[in-house]
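LOG
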Amino acid sequence: MEPLQRRKFDTQFKMEAVRLVLNGKSIKQVASDLGIGASVLARWRREYLVDTQHAFPGKGHLKPEDEEMRQLKKQLRDVTEERDILKKAMAIFSKQSR
Protein backbone atom coordinates (compact mmCIF):
# COMPACT_ATOMS: atom_id res chain seq x y z
CA MET A 1 0.00 0.00 0.00
CA GLU A 2 1.41 3.41 -1.01
CA PRO A 3 1.75 6.15 1.61
CA LEU A 4 -0.64 9.05 1.23
CA GLN A 5 0.84 12.13 -0.38
CA ARG A 6 0.43 15.34 1.54
CA ARG A 7 -1.60 17.86 -0.42
CA LYS A 8 -0.16 21.33 -0.88
CA PHE A 9 -2.22 24.48 -1.17
CA ASP A 10 -0.97 27.78 -2.50
CA THR A 11 -1.29 31.07 -0.67
CA GLN A 12 -4.15 32.27 -2.86
CA PHE A 13 -6.24 29.18 -2.06
CA LYS A 14 -5.63 29.57 1.68
CA MET A 15 -6.46 33.28 1.61
CA GLU A 16 -9.70 32.64 -0.28
CA ALA A 17 -10.71 29.87 2.13
CA VAL A 18 -10.02 32.10 5.15
CA ARG A 19 -11.89 34.99 3.50
CA LEU A 20 -14.98 32.77 3.17
CA VAL A 21 -14.81 31.92 6.89
CA LEU A 22 -14.30 35.56 7.88
CA ASN A 23 -17.31 36.56 5.78
CA GLY A 24 -19.63 34.49 7.98
CA LYS A 25 -19.60 30.94 6.65
CA SER A 26 -18.83 28.22 9.15
CA ILE A 27 -15.46 26.54 9.14
CA LYS A 28 -17.14 23.15 8.81
CA GLN A 29 -19.16 24.24 5.76
CA VAL A 30 -16.22 25.88 3.95
CA ALA A 31 -13.95 22.92 4.68
CA SER A 32 -16.56 20.52 3.35
CA ASP A 33 -17.10 22.60 0.20
CA LEU A 34 -13.35 22.79 -0.50
CA GLY A 35 -12.59 19.18 0.42
CA ILE A 36 -10.19 19.96 3.24
CA GLY A 37 -10.20 19.20 6.93
CA ALA A 38 -11.95 21.59 9.29
CA SER A 39 -8.93 21.55 11.61
CA VAL A 40 -6.67 22.60 8.72
CA LEU A 41 -8.95 25.51 7.86
CA ALA A 42 -9.18 26.52 11.53
CA ARG A 43 -5.35 26.59 11.70
CA TRP A 44 -5.17 28.71 8.53
CA ARG A 45 -7.69 31.13 10.02
CA ARG A 46 -5.68 31.32 13.27
CA GLU A 47 -2.42 31.94 11.37
CA TYR A 48 -4.10 34.63 9.29
CA LEU A 49 -5.51 36.42 12.31
CA VAL A 50 -2.14 36.39 14.11
CA ASP A 51 -0.25 38.05 11.24
CA THR A 52 -2.44 39.26 8.38
CA GLN A 53 0.41 40.87 6.42
CA HIS A 54 2.72 37.86 6.38
CA ALA A 55 0.32 34.93 6.60
CA PHE A 56 1.25 31.87 4.54
CA PRO A 57 4.74 32.89 3.39
CA GLY A 58 5.19 29.65 1.44
CA LYS A 59 7.89 27.02 1.44
CA GLY A 60 11.37 28.48 1.51
CA HIS A 61 10.17 31.99 2.26
CA LEU A 62 10.47 33.42 5.73
CA LYS A 63 8.66 36.27 7.40
CA PRO A 64 10.87 39.38 7.49
CA GLU A 65 11.58 38.98 11.23
CA ASP A 66 12.54 35.32 10.79
CA GLU A 67 14.77 36.13 7.82
CA GLU A 68 16.55 38.83 9.82
CA MET A 69 17.03 36.39 12.72
CA ARG A 70 18.48 33.80 10.32
CA GLN A 71 20.93 36.34 8.90
CA LEU A 72 22.00 37.53 12.35
CA LYS A 73 22.62 33.97 13.54
CA LYS A 74 24.73 33.29 10.45
CA GLN A 75 26.70 36.50 11.01
CA LEU A 76 27.31 35.57 14.66
CA ARG A 77 28.48 32.10 13.64
CA ASP A 78 30.91 33.60 11.09
CA VAL A 79 32.33 36.17 13.52
CA THR A 80 32.73 33.54 16.24
CA GLU A 81 34.61 31.29 13.81
CA GLU A 82 36.88 34.18 12.77
CA ARG A 83 37.60 35.00 16.42
CA ASP A 84 38.51 31.38 17.18
CA ILE A 85 40.86 31.27 14.19
CA LEU A 86 42.58 34.46 15.34
CA LYS A 87 42.97 33.09 18.88
CA LYS A 88 44.66 29.96 17.53
CA ALA A 89 46.92 32.04 15.27
CA MET A 90 47.92 34.24 18.22
CA ALA A 91 48.81 31.15 20.27
CA ILE A 92 50.92 29.74 17.45
CA PHE A 93 52.80 33.00 16.80
CA SER A 94 53.40 33.67 20.49
CA LYS A 95 55.04 30.23 20.84
CA GLN A 96 57.25 30.86 17.79
CA SER A 97 58.50 34.24 19.01
CA ARG A 98 59.94 32.80 22.25
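LOG (cont.) second protein
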Amino acid sequence: MEEQGIGEKLKKWPVRVKDYIGELQTEMRRVTWPSWKQVRATTAVVILSVFAFAAYFAVVDTAVGRMIDRIFQTFAKLS
Protein backbone atom coordinates (compact mmCIF):
# COMPACT_ATOMS: atom_id res chain seq x y z
CA MET A 1 0.00 0.00 0.00
CA GLU A 2 1.39 3.37 -0.98
CA GLU A 3 1.55 6.18 1.52
CA GLN A 4 0.04 9.45 0.35
CA GLY A 5 1.87 12.63 1.05
CA ILE A 6 0.22 15.60 2.73
CA GLY A 7 0.08 17.40 -0.61
CA GLU A 8 -1.90 14.60 -2.22
CA LYS A 9 -4.30 14.46 0.70
CA LEU A 10 -4.86 18.22 0.51
CA LYS A 11 -5.62 17.97 -3.21
CA LYS A 12 -8.24 15.28 -2.63
CA TRP A 13 -10.15 16.80 0.30
CA PRO A 14 -12.49 19.01 -1.78
CA VAL A 15 -13.58 15.96 -3.77
CA ARG A 16 -14.04 13.92 -0.61
CA VAL A 17 -16.12 16.70 1.00
CA LYS A 18 -18.29 16.99 -2.12
CA ASP A 19 -18.81 13.21 -2.18
CA TYR A 20 -19.70 13.23 1.51
CA ILE A 21 -22.28 16.00 1.07
CA GLY A 22 -23.79 14.21 -1.93
CA GLU A 23 -24.10 10.96 0.02
CA LEU A 24 -25.55 12.85 2.97
CA GLN A 25 -28.23 14.44 0.79
CA THR A 26 -29.09 11.05 -0.70
CA GLU A 27 -29.50 9.51 2.76
CA MET A 28 -31.57 12.45 4.02
CA ARG A 29 -34.03 11.94 1.15
CA ARG A 30 -34.57 8.38 2.40
CA VAL A 31 -35.36 9.44 5.97
CA THR A 32 -38.92 8.92 7.15
CA TRP A 33 -39.73 11.63 9.64
CA PRO A 34 -42.23 10.97 12.45
CA SER A 35 -45.52 12.81 12.56
CA TRP A 36 -46.12 15.55 15.11
CA LYS A 37 -48.46 13.20 17.01
CA GLN A 38 -45.73 10.55 17.25
CA VAL A 39 -43.20 13.13 18.44
CA ARG A 40 -45.50 14.31 21.22
CA ALA A 41 -46.32 10.76 22.32
CA THR A 42 -42.71 9.59 22.45
CA THR A 43 -41.64 12.80 24.19
CA ALA A 44 -44.28 12.22 26.87
CA VAL A 45 -43.06 8.64 27.34
CA VAL A 46 -39.47 9.82 27.72
CA ILE A 47 -40.37 12.53 30.24
CA LEU A 48 -42.51 10.15 32.31
CA SER A 49 -39.75 7.52 32.22
CA VAL A 50 -37.17 10.02 33.42
CA PHE A 51 -39.36 10.99 36.39
CA ALA A 52 -40.14 7.34 37.20
CA PHE A 53 -36.44 6.39 37.18
CA ALA A 54 -35.57 9.48 39.23
CA ALA A 55 -38.14 8.51 41.87
CA TYR A 56 -36.92 4.89 41.89
CA PHE A 57 -33.29 5.91 42.33
CA ALA A 58 -34.21 8.43 45.03
CA VAL A 59 -35.95 5.68 47.02
CA VAL A 60 -33.08 3.22 46.53
CA ASP A 61 -30.49 5.87 47.40
CA THR A 62 -32.34 6.80 50.58
CA ALA A 63 -32.72 3.16 51.63
CA VAL A 64 -29.08 2.28 50.96
CA GLY A 65 -27.91 5.47 52.68
CA ARG A 66 -29.92 4.67 55.81
CA MET A 67 -28.60 1.09 55.88
CA ILE A 68 -25.03 2.33 55.63
CA ASP A 69 -25.66 4.87 58.41
CA ARG A 70 -27.05 2.09 60.67
CA ILE A 71 -24.03 -0.10 59.95
CA PHE A 72 -21.67 2.76 60.83
CA GLN A 73 -23.62 3.55 64.00
CA THR A 74 -23.51 -0.11 65.04
CA PHE A 75 -19.75 -0.31 64.55
CA ALA A 76 -19.27 3.05 66.31
CA LYS A 77 -21.08 1.74 69.41
CA LEU A 78 -18.91 -1.41 69.44
CA SER A 79 -15.63 0.47 69.48
